[in-house]
């Protein structure tokens, strides 16, 4: 069976539809022809029995009332024979070869049967009327070959008609398949055109709410997601190239200067230290890019629903651990980092709310947001990290008492490689040896990572300036249902 199926896979969809539908139609037509032949055979046999009964009835009726009847000959083409109780043939229009079989029929039960005489078949009706003279036998016969001729002719007619219908059905299937696939071909040509069309072009969606319209909508959504991913990757490459160009140029200059001061150990050590700082910043940038790429790749792969669920208390423990790590950095600037855990209104139970956010994700949120605040704050500033729970979501809020950010920066705060350096901290002074401006401490990816982590957990991230001074960053993660 598989040997016949494999070659069909090489054919076009239109050909496979036509062949498949024609094959099904052929099976149906053959079954119909067989059923109709059976019905015709049954009808012809029933009609023949009725005619034979009509041929025999007049003689049976006469013999039932008359012991010495005077029979009139039967009509033309009627084959009738009457055998007396003594076995004598009183009347017969049977062929001689059938008359020779009448003796055996006198002993058979009344009814209809088919006999084979000298290679010819006859359908016969046998009746045994009884009168004073004894038990008579009346036989009416018809050649069964006539029935076979009628049935064969009708079968031939049905077969030819069925073959014509099958051919017409095959042609109609080809035409209908062509018409049904025309929108698909049009969609394919449109897809080819989209390869060189404007980026926002879409496949046309027909007015009918059918499978093709659903396919077009699905493909348009896929194209939109693909464009977003491509644009995101293109933007990341462009931004990364721009961000890497300056520190690499500075690093190159510092290494060149180090080679010129090879004889001055103090100057050489200073150049190497500056180069190490720039390498560390480049390493942080590379790590942030890798982290962001992994988060977005996981989100595109549909792993969001597969994330481990964490309870409010588990995430609260990670908040405290992350705050301790941030305090190590903040201690060099005398910045105070506090935390506040606001548990759910109902004490934790086995049914405590759970979130699609693991400990690593919470650590990234606290470290990036609080770390940015520590970098931006002047000496002696303060940062407060709050983790609270509501019936609908868990909320992480980081507030500082620094200078805040320009309002124009708020809408783009979570975009990649955006830094309000001139507002959050003083601009670094040019390097006295090279005149170049050092790379700012942040990579501009911290808040982008925050948004990616929040969205992967199904939540949101927002930022606003506090009226009393400072900045407030809020991340909300919905309760997993």
* Helix and strand pattern: HHEEHHEEEEEHHHEHEEHEEHHEE
Radius of gyration: 50 Å
Mean pLDDT: 79
Tell me the helix content: 40-55%
Shape: rod-shaped
Strand order of the largest sheet: 2-1-7-4-3
What's the total number of strands? 14
Largest sheet: 5 strands, antiparallel
User: Structural class of the helix and strand makeup?
Assistant: alpha+beta
List the total number of helices: 11
Report the span from N to C terminus: 49 Å
Strand content: 15-25%
pLDDT below 50 for ≥5 consecutive residues: which ranges? 422-441
Written description of the protein model:
With about 475 residues, the chain is an alpha+beta fold. It is about 55% helix and about 15% strand. It starts with a helix and ends with a strand. The model is unreliable at about 420-440 (pLDDT under 50).
